[in-house]
Amino acid sequence: MSLLAARDLAVARGGLRALEGVSFQLDPGRALILRGPNGIGKTTLLRTLAGLQKPVSGLIEGEDTAYAGHADGLKPALTARENLDFWRRVFGGPPIAGALAAMALQPLAARPAHALSAGQKRRLGLARLLVTGRRVWLLDEPTVSLDAASVGLFADMLRRHLGQGGAALIATHIDLGLDAEVLDLTPYRASAAPTPRPAGFNEAFG
Ligand SMILES: Nc1ncnc2c1ncn2[C@@H]1O[C@H](COP(=O)(O)OP(=O)(O)OP(=O)(O)O)[C@@H](O)[C@H]1O
């Protein structure tokens, strides 16, 4: 039984179709790397799978997802510990101690999020995945701003998640050293052909 599947999915951004005909299935323990040039629609696809926007057409099966996007989505006035606790309560996931440890955040636990560096904020944003308790992680360039040691911590965290039956869909340009399949989105770029208009359709008054 797959945790997440897309069937003949088409997604759009800014009113324009980006990708069409995307199908895949993500089983427990598996990671799938999204590849493709800048602007092809990796972020758009991840946002659609996360339920943040509707697909143009096609089917999505599986909702046990947690999304980590470009914005860290932290509450600046709350400490690192309070941020994790907030999200744990929202999602009902496991205690925050494991999340603090996974991304080596204990020394920063009492610091407000606004006083963290870009890489420290990113570590906190990624640690948040653990307190969601969700099985499918949707990750958009998760290693941006991370130093080599933090990339290593995150790769370990991801490997443990997969080992526990989780799954991940990851847009990344770097090699995380995972045993993962690759989905190159290049062939699924939506055609630029205009969508057919009904007979008599008037652009100005339709
Ligand atoms: N806020 C926006 N409004 C309108 N169009 C957008 C917006 N953001 C992105 N787009 C367009 O949507 C398309 C898909 O963008 P998307 O960000 O999903 O691509 P991506 O593959 O994630 O790119 P990158 O590798 O650069 O992060 C692109 O053609 C882009 O120009």
Automatic annotation (TrEMBL):
Q: Which SMART domains match?
A: AAA
Please report the stretch or stretches of sequence annotated as the ABC transporter domain.
Answer: 4-204
Q: Which domain of life is it from?
A: Bacteria
Note whether ATP-binding occurs among the keywords: yes
Q: Which gene encodes it?
A: ccmA
Give TM segment ranges: none
Pfam name, any one: ABC_tran
InterPro entries assigned to the protein according to its UniProt record, in alphabetical order: AAA+_ATPase, ABC_transporter-like_ATP-bd, ABC_transporter-like_CS, ABC_transptr_haem_export_CcmA, P-loop_NTPase
Molecular-function annotations in GO: ATP binding; ATP hydrolysis activity; transmembrane transporter activity
Which BP terms in the Gene Ontology apply to this protein?
cytochrome complex assembly
- The yes or no answer to whether the keyword Nucleotidyltransferase is present is no
Indicate what this protein is called per its UniProt record: Heme ABC exporter ATP-binding protein CcmA
